[in-house]
User: Which sequence fits this backbone?
């Protein structure tokens, strides 16, 4: 009867020197395995999708569904490429000896965080600070956009008010012209004086 292997899976622990050779070997293996799994998963997806493309269908609904699937696939591939880039960057840091240390504070990121997310570049504190700064920036942008919108609305209202005043003045001038014509018909010998009088009023406004 074969003996059961008693070999346990190695997991870095805090009793060991931080980023010792065993730690580096462990994270290198984890990152390479993760990268291979991503490539394999995407290759399998491409093969399956290629098989689907060979199936002709005249159903418009099926074609629309196929386009939607392609869009989702492209987004997934983009995320996978970005993730692979981060994995390659982590492997590079392992070779350079900077892996496991915060890019902003140079403090140890910590084994627990690295085991959970091997591509982490910031410590928990630095990450929280970064997220807080992003939220503050977004909040300021929202406030600035609201102020810009408010100023724009005020300018629009001002322009509308000016337009209304202009139309009102035009309307008043039309009334004055009509009244002058009536006065001219009723009193022909006063026509010149009435028109001149209204012209003077128009100049004031």
Assistant:
């Amino acid at each position: 009867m074969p003996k059961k292997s008693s070999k346990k899976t190695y997991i870095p622990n805090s009793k060991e020197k931080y980023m010792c050779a065993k730690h580096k070997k462990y994270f290198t293996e984890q990152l390479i395995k993760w990268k291979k799994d991503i490539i394999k998963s995407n290759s399998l997806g491409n093969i399956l999708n290629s098989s689907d493309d060979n199936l002709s269908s005249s159903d418009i609904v099926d074609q629309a569904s196929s386009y939607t699937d392609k869009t989702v696939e492209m987004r997934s591939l983009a995320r996978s490429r970005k993730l692979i880039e981060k994995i390659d960057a982590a492997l590079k840091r392992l070779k350079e000896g900077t892996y496991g240390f915060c890019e902003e504070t140079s403090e140890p990121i910590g084994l627990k965080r690295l085991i959970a997310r091997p591509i982490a570049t910031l410590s928990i504190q630095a990450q929280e600070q970064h997220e807080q700064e992003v939220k503050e920036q977004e909040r300021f942008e929202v406030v600035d956009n609201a102020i810009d919108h408010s100023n724009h609305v005020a300018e629009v209202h001002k322009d509308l008010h000016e337009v209304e005043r202009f139309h009102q003045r035009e309307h008043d001038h039309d009334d004055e012209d009509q009244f002058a014509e009536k006065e001219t018909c009723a009193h022909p010998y006063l026509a010149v004086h009435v028109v001149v009088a209204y012209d003077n009023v128009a100049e004031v406004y």
About this structure: The first helix runs from residue 21 to 53. The mean pLDDT is 76. The helical segments are 21-53, 60-96, 111-116, 124-186, 191-204. The chain has five helices and no strands.
